[in-house]
Amino acid sequence: MSLAEFLEMKGISKSYNGTRALRKVDFSAQRGEVHAIIGENGAGKSTLVKILSGAVNADEGRIFISGAESRINNPIDSQKLGIRAVNQHFSLVPHLTVTENILIGNLQKSNAKFCINWTKSHEVARNVLDRIGFADLDVKLKISDLSASQKQMVEIAKAVSVSPNILIMDEPSAVLSQKELDRLFRVIRQLKSENVLILYISHRLDEIFQIADRVTVLKDGCLVGIVNTTETSKPALIKMMVGRTIDEIFPDRVSSFNNKVMIVRGLSRDKIFKDITFSISKGEILGFYGLVGSGRTEMARCIFGADRLTDGEVLINEKPIELSTPRKALNEGISMLTEDRSFDGLVMFLSIKDNISLAAMKKFSRFGVLNKRLQNSSVKSMINKFRIKPDNPSRQLKELSGGNQQKVVFAKWLTLETPIIILDEPTRGVDVATKHEIYNIIRALADSGTAILLISSELPEVIGLSDRVIVLREGRITGEFKRQEASEEKLLACAAGVVNEGEVSK
Amino acid sequence: MIEGMNQKKGTTIKSILASIRQFKITIRGRQFKPADYGFLVIFAVLILVGALFTDMFFTRINIANVLRQIIANGLVSLGMLMVILTGGVDLTVGSYVALGGVLFAGLTDSIGIVPALILAVSAGGLFGVVNGVLVAHFKLQAFIATLATMGILRGIVFLYTETPISPEHDAFRELGAGGIGLVSFGLIIMVTLFVLGWFFLNRMSTGRAVLAIGGNKEAVRLAGINVKLTVILAYVMSGFLSSLSGAILVSRLGIAQPSVGMAYELDAIAACVIGGAVMGGGGGGVPGAFLGVLTIGLISNLMNLLGIQTFFQDIIRGLVIILAVLARSGKN
To answer: What is the ipTM of this complex?
Structure first.
């Protein structure tokens, strides 16, 4: 078997700042196949393909292409070997046109050789788009004027324009609608018929059964197994990925809630969400599920005062509150852990101590002067409580692993001890072990009486943790489920609009 | 295996440099990277050169001179540091120096030394509000906003006086030229303000916010801190400190030219950067800026003593800046 493989990666290991991302992973795939790589967040999927695309260097291991050992030290080496990646985070230049982005570094020259032949360049770009079935995109548009899914098309076109042997797609479906996804699958099948090897990373198992020939499962940086999609099932894959069943991760929680702390009425913001009404009680975990663009995060940011509402009101203990700045929301007892910790959660060059105490500085100071003893003891107890590694409070945040960074964000907000907390994707980009620690933290927080609004894109997480789940689609509530009634199928159906009405039960 | 992969030609030197940069010492739970203090080596070399190649360097007169000459850049740099820490830059500082200088000199004879000083310094602080509001509220890029106000303020200074002002008041020169032994009043003021600046940045909640804003403005806003006010405060401090610098400078010189302080922003930025400040925000501190100011001061002093022409001084100063930043760049 191994002789016939087109791509072989042997004994690949990689650590980031002492955290093992990959441990002696063997991987192989053939030309003309769609090979899915799955695993939970932090399982090492992205790291594996980044090594292949030259974005990061492996600590150990060898790579063979067509049986010949290949060295990939940087993206240029990788591209020379015919490897192209469609990245999870777009690598497009926003103020340039579609043509320029597709043909970047490769624009068509005029006969005189020193200037660009725009007519010809646009034509080449159009041909590339046509080839992958996106001919309707205007190549003269600027990237910044495109929607997320159009950007995705350009990203794919850019990769395909050089006729690669290996095409890496890292979560290509995250921003796509069902219709767009169908188009994407057509493109993938087309490329497959052209004998391209497609490495497809996704955590949506349904997609994998639709498109992939084989699946490689990673867990905690180790290879669990390679299976043919025809010979496996969804539960079997989940079992391989997680290593335990859902019930073991989320123990059942029985409780009744009647002490309403926050009522949200008719919340609206322009075209993003409309007429959102719900209430949450003391100690309750209220989950919010929806696809990208459903307006969950935007709604939460408005409740926190980070963005402005156009209509609606929020009542805390039956009194309406003003929601104009995060400062006011914090004074009213609402805090919010935002979805992207490096974008708006943490100050990377500052210490663990500074980051944990950032929101609570007022609490630690008198007349603007910090009480170091008070601050140090509070920070120390948070570090112990969350088992943050390293436990030295003066270490810089950027030296920490993703999971520990996320724990610092938690510690920052929990220092405030607000009665209401919004958690937006609380386990994004953390390893599996930390994920379970975070679940325990969330549970303990609710048990202590905190009302928690939990936004999550991971179905098992939102179903397993929440006492009640609200589903949003295109900015409106399309369903509400109690813990016992919620299932992955029902939530997805509501979120994707397969049925018009969810089972609304109060 | 892959160990061999990283050792291509040329990468060996890079990896040695990287490991020097990554080298850490832990003292009482705090980490120190010796590479961060690379400019101390430059500092030591400067003093060594001074000791070996000049007779004048360690004389009382020369030391007194250096200590007087660094005051102007010192105060400007302290203000510049506050602004750089928030992620901005203040190009107006040279014009503040002129504003503080001409107002102090111009008003001393009519309203007395202390009121004149207070007025001159407040004017600078007040103008700092303009820069702060332009940057924090109207979201202008700091470079553009302060470039514009640099010109506006210089124009205003020339409107106030086109000719140099030399006050009659007996005590006018005391602030800059007077003092106790080697220590001038100006130096006492500067050192005091550096200590206060350190206290502000390390022991006060607003100071920590200044530092954090340069790293991640949005995170600070979401933490319930008034980012706009904090940024405005940084520009006000810059205006205040630079105009104070101007007042002390003209007091030392005994005459206030409306053109004084031209290009002072360059030495101030240089001092901050040599001392470890990161342009665009993301690190830096008062002790570093202080050493940066001393380094810049020593370079000028030494080269004057050695009789090196000014254009050559500029070249060497530029090289020192590049060296200081390179020594640290692994941090990034």
So the answer is: 0.84
